[in-house]
Amino acid sequence: MVSSRKEKDDMIQPGSLSLFIHLLINTYHNVIKKYPIRAFSCMVVLVVASIIIINGRAAVTNSLKDNNGKILGEMTYKCKPVKEAYSDKKIILRLDDIQAFAYSEISQMMIEDSISRKMKLVLGVIPYNLTQDAFITNVLKKNNCNLELALHGWDHSISPETGVYEFEDMDEAEAASKIKEGKSILEQIGGQPVVTFIPPGNLISSSTKKVLKQEGIKYLSGDTESSIYGIDATTYDFQSKKLNDNSDILNKCDERFSKNKFCVIVIHPQDYLTDDKIDEDKYSQFINLLDEFRNEQVLSITFNSL
Amino acid sequence: MKKKKPSIAILAPCYNEEKTIRKCVLSWLNQIHPADEIIIVNDCSTDGTLEILQEFKDRVTIVDLLKNTGNKSYVQEEGLKYVTKDVFIATDADTIMDRHFVERVVIAFRDKRVHAFAGYIKSLRGNWLTACREIDYLIGQDLHKAAQYHINFLFVIPGCAGAFRTKVFKKNISFDHDTLTEDLDFTYRINKLDLNILYDREAIVYTQDPDTIKSYINQIRRWYSGGWQNLLKHKGIMKKKPIRAMELSIVYIEGLIFYPLMFIIPIISIKAFFYLILYCAALGLFFGIYSAIKRKRLDLFFYSPLYIIVTYIHSYIFMEQFIKEVILKKRNLKWYHPERRKMT
Question: Are residue B208 and residue B86 in the same domain, yes or no?
């Protein structure tokens, strides 16, 4: 019905942009323009508070910096497990000498670059002082679902007098105490039971082997003579003090694959440094190795998944 | 020097308002500062409106038109001829004035620089739809209109709560009949002339808003089609006035972007739609809380989750009227009589 009825017209504003703009206009006119001194004081207080908060935060993070100057922080991370297609070609990438306050940056890069290529790693971790280093602890925690933390001795020390590695000639009591403590530290960080031991220098006493059994260590990863799970390839030649060619590593692994066996490759982060700095050329060789494994559709596994 | 007190007239058109007119007229009469004249123009009502008006014939001027005009602006134009006072208040026959409304108008027009006046609307209690409308009024007036007032570009003087200097209005503004929203039309013209509009949030009126979906949709349809008609009619208003261009862009361009998204997003991504709903619900809840506190009405908080439904109605009609009025150029000048309910 046509009518002369009237209604109260008020255009309804549509989205959030108008809300925001109009809120700003109202704030300017109702607060800043009306009470400039109070508004200015409030702004000063806000700025000062912000500076205090930012500096306070910086002070906290600075206090957690490691010796490489990386910002650290005790944060909670959610690790996403990598998913790989099944393959008959299996490798174990064993990254040794992960430790507190040394090789932190290169270690982090190697871990993250491997995981980003869907490769799991077994880390040979030296537990001594590890909880003091928040940076490396966070890296391990952040990626724990794609890492197996293996006990790599206690402090990886070598006797200056005899040149003997720490577990090479250790008695049972001392070995038990160090393995127990080391295991507890790694389990606290990794959140899963430690079942692999990597003897420093690949040398281990018989009493240490006994202790390992008692402590529930299932896998001993050393050289072929000292353990069941030997080393098939290394990325570094200790004789020539050079990185091995990737093709040599791949050939060695192919040999293992042909026998239906998995291939253990040992890597040390320090081998990719020159004068304590990351050597881009060397590091690119590591990345190439990962990519070549990926191209060959190799499945990277860990000892605890055997 | 003492400022001269302006004389005030109230002008109200009406058609079939038997359910609301008595209460409204009483509110116009019972003002703290009484109006000097009240003119009610009856557009040939077919119900008992005229009989009710006769009860007040000694105190109000009743203009009974001989033929139904079918359009509010025609009725107002007719009534304006009878206005003899300095200032006239344009209101509706379903609008109750707060006892201080006329007083606020008098105070405002004591200042000779003020040529027009916009009051503040509150919606009378009804159901969830009127609650959502009340939230709309609150956001519209407390936030949007307040900001528009600051930038000196009040988008619309409400048709039920406006006041004007009679001489200026008769000479320069008047009522046009070529759009569906006469109040938006004359506000555009007032802005074009750069006349001062005063927005007073203390000058309150209470109106009855639609409480059925059908009636609500018809009203929104009229508002939006009137909005587009007026924008096309007065598009020159933005010339050399960047602030006006900005404000109109906010209203219309943002609408053209935001409202279609309400329908496109659910087709593109369910996840994005979920976030959109979540955002709208959070915004609705925030406004619900604000409105409940501001109006001291708990029902506004409880009904606020339903605000999303109203948003979808607005989105659809905004686009519909854009297509009709702007793209297809199908001009709609048809007025619908909304369902009225008895005022208690």
Answer: yes
B324: distance to nearest CA of chain A, Å? 18
Interface TM-score (ipTM) > 0.85 = no
A60 and chain B in contact, CB less than 8 A: no
Cβ separation B258–A28 shorter than 8 A? no
| Residue B301, in any domain of the structure | yes
Neighboring chain A residues of B336 at a CB cutoff of 8 Å: 1-3, 5
Which pair of tokens denotes residue A72?
């650290």
Domain-embedded: residue B340: no
Average pLDDT over residues A65-84: 60
How many CB pairs lie under 8 A apart between chains A and B?
136
pLDDT greater than 90 at residue A278: no
Rounded to whole angstroms, the Cα distance separating A178 from A14 reads: 69
In a domain, B217, yes or no: no
B220 in a domain, yes or no? no
Residue of A2, A3, A8, A31 to mutate when probing chain B, most B C-beta within 10 A: A8
Pairing of β A277-278 and β A273-274: antiparallel
A27 with B146: CB under 8 angstroms? no
Quick check: A4 pLDDT over 50?
A: no
Chain B neighbors of A14, CB-CB under 8 A: 251, 254-255, 258-259, 314, 318
Kindly give the residue spans of alpha helices, DSSP state H, lying in chain B: 21-29, 49-54, 72-80, 101-109, 128-139, 146-150, 166-168, 182-192, 213-233, 242-268, 270-295, 298-303, 307-321
Domain ranges of chain A: 18-63, 90-305
If 0-12 CB within 10 Å is exposed, 13-18 middle and 19+ buried, where does residue A98 land?
buried
Nearest CA in chain A to B335: A2
Residue B52 shares a structural domain with residue B132? yes
Q: Is B161 on the interface with A (CB under 8 A)?
A: yes
DSSP helix, strand, coil percent of chain A (3-state; round to 5): 45, 15, 40
- Residue B55: give the domain boundaries: 8-212
User: What pLDDT digit, counting tens, does each position of B5-47 carry?
Assistant: 899 999 999 988 888 899 999 999 988 899 999 999 999 899 8
The count of C-alpha atoms lying within 13 angstroms of the C-alpha of A40, restricted to the half-sphere facing its C-beta, is: 5
The CATH code of domain A90-305 reads 3.20.20.370
Q: pLDDT of B223-277, one tens digit each?
A: 888 888 888 888 888 777 788 888 888 888 888 888 888 889 889 888 888 988 8
3-state secondary structure of B97: strand
Question: What pLDDT was estimated at residue B41?
Answer: 94
Res. A227 pLDDT band, cuts 50 70 90:
low
A 16-55: CB under 8 A from B: 16-19, 21-23, 25-26, 28-30
Mean pLDDT of chain B: 88
Contacts of B335 in chain A (CB under 8 A): 2-5
